[in-house]
Amino acid sequence: NDEVKYPRYPKQLLVETLDPLLPMEIVHRKKQGFVLPWDIWMKNELNSFCSKAIDRISERDFINAIELKGIWKRFLSGDPSVRWTEPWLFVVLSHWLDKQSID
User: Fold this and answer.
1) Residue 12 to residues 5, 7, 8, 37, 59: CA-CA distances in angstroms?
2) How far apart are CA 79 and CA 72, in angstroms?
3) CA-CA distance, 16 to 3, in Å (whole number)?
């Protein structure tokens, strides 16, 4: 059926199924992105995991420990110049190196 294949608006079948529950202002609003709150998690629920990973990777010869720990400290203090992705890359690398048993 062409009406199902070519709906008048996105997710028409879903919208019509939820019709009495879903307000039309939600149905017809502009699309919005969704971002996970990594910065909040890293400062709270993931703080211990991240801090340990930063400490472990800081012991490696190829890492400038003072610089990395400074970045981590600035991130935790809310310095807007340090995005969550910067320390997270080192957390992930540390975790990967540990899992691969790479010294």
Assistant:
1) 10, 6, 7, 30, 55
2) 10
3) 13
Comparing C-alpha atoms, which of 6, 1, 27, 5 is closest to residue 16? 27
* Alpha carbon distance 97, 103 (integer Å): 8
Tokens representing 14 are: 């879903």
Q: List pLDDT tens digits, range 38-53.
A: 999 999 999 999 999 9
Q: What's the predicted TM-score (pTM) here?
A: 0.71
Q: What is the number of other CB atoms lying within 10 angstroms of the CB of residue 49?
A: 13
What's the rounded Cα separation, in Å, for the pair 22 and 19? 6
Question: Measuring CA to CA, which residue among 92, 85, 90 is closest to residue 68?
Answer: 90
